[in-house]
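Hi there,

I know you've been waiting on this one. I reran it after we fixed the sequence typo, so this is the corrected version. Both the input and the resulting structure follow.
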Amino acid sequence: MTSQILYLVPGDPAQVLLGEMATQAQIQQLHRELHLNRGPLVRFGTYVWNAVHGDLGRSYRTDRPVTTEIGDAFPETLELALTAWVLASVLGTVIGVFAASRPNTLLDGVLTTLSVIGLSVPVFWLGILLIYLFANLLHLFPTGGTGGIRHLVLPAITLASPSLGIVARFVRDGMIEAMQEDYVRTARAKGVRPWAVLFKHGLRNAILPAITMMGIQMGQLLSGSVLTETVFAWPGVGRLLVNAIGYRDLLLIQGIVLVLATVFVLVNLAVDIAYAIVNPRVQYR
């Protein structure tokens, strides 16, 4: 479906590659070389057949294999997504636990409000704001690119912000529900220390539903880093996709979408398997 929709978007890849001064003969010649003169069904069938055999075609712009282009950029996206995922999971869990420890209090209200703000603020606006504050004004971090941990801080915070809010809300709601169970009341009656009740009895049971959400967020972070990578000039798959759209590099766009969709499905499958391992009461039939 994606491959067919892309051909309906205004613009000619051959015209973009050759420039405005190209003659009609040159454009038609490039059409034949790129197989753009074939019908949509023929192009689609050829693409599917080649993709099944591991061939996603060659980039129109660089003439390199699409798999090579994606392979060069994917480690950068993986590094950013993993960092953001760890940040969102750890901080989201901590915020959720502290909010649930004092439900319906000022602390709970402040932490819940912060998580909602993180979930609601557009990542491109947050990224620009962080660059302005911490790069331009305070000069603590670079404005973009790669090169070390300092380059990773701002884009990781930006990418993690929505996921952090989701995880915090899941953990908080699960903790509040768990702290009302009979086994928690029994533990308190036995004189168990409050921190032990909170973490050993409350968090241990409340974290299971949040694990599924954390896994889903990992898939979304890998496939949804387009805006963050663009704002911070991060050389990952997301920025590669934006550049491919600008150059009308159709095969590269199709390859990136296919790879990201496959990664998302595999991550969610791994989450389901991990959930069954963590919670033996869950059985898949």
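Quick highlight: The mean pLDDT is 80.

Best,
R. S.
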